[in-house]
User: Fold this.
Amino acid sequence: MMKLDDCRYEGQGSFKLSDYPTSAKVDKADRSHIEELMANNIERMIELQDKLYAQGTEGVVIMIQAMDAAGKDGTIKHVMSGLNPQGVKVYSFKQPSKEELAHDFLWRAACHLPQRGEIGLFNRSYYEDVLIVRVRGLWRGYAMPKRCLDMSEKDFFDQRYRQIVNFEDFLYENGYRLVKVFLNLGLDEQKKRFLARIDEPAKNWKFSAGDLDERDLWPQYMDAFEQAIGATSTKRNPWYVIPADQKFFARYLVSEAVVATLAACDPAYPQLSEEDLAGLEACRARLAGE
Ligand code: ATP
Ligand code: MG
Assistant:
């Protein structure tokens, strides 16, 4: 069975998206076993997050990128079920507002970073700025000086990849870890899910005709993902390319990535000093004396 390690890319060799399957082809009979493993991971997350929060020294940002209908929302819901909402900040990266567009492209991400001790959940992220912005050529219309735009598409995005790597190194060096997840959905599976959104009234709200316009640009998107993942995966901040055609397995693998990252933080409850412990004993005596 496929493991988290099979999905991790940290910059070793050159990155080819086609080396990463969209389905791990897990037998349906194994589903309940996977769900048990997932439940264990949720338990672990609860335990680790409690310590992370108590300690307050390291922040974690989980970011999920994918084509439409790859299961971002469901994955976020499942991961959330293992976290205390008090220590989690969820943020969705929509089309940038006027104010956001008037800033550098990393500004809104920086504004929505969790505090150390908290977990941030990014539904999409600043990677949109090297995905849709590249595929749709939006960068050419940005209000920026000539020196920032007067270059080839390749140069412009190579520069952005470098800026992202620098930003992510900066975060690492300032007490943050990232869990970068690409839910790798197959073209056929997306079609099935779109049809289900059209067929089932309870899913109609999730569908918009515009999603088909992005689907028409599938090869361009895959190319943009391949380049972005290839250029921004590092040992500190690897990408996880998760097969997304089977939702239950994708969710399990994402829970594996989250647990692995929280465990790497190795959080522990703060230890009280001798003096603080003596203070606690004094409080005990005071309560006993009431
Ligand atoms: P989702 O599709 O994530 O479930 P949604 O359907 O509720 O969300 P949309 O408005 O469709 O909401 O999704 C956000 C849209 O904004 C996406 O098409 C995304 O590519 C786009 N977007 C995000 N960031 C940027 C950006 N920096 N520049 C341009 N478009 C962006
Ligand atoms: Mg959408």
In short: The chain has one domain: 4-288. Strands lie at 8-9, 59-66, 88-92, 119-123, 176-184, 239-243.
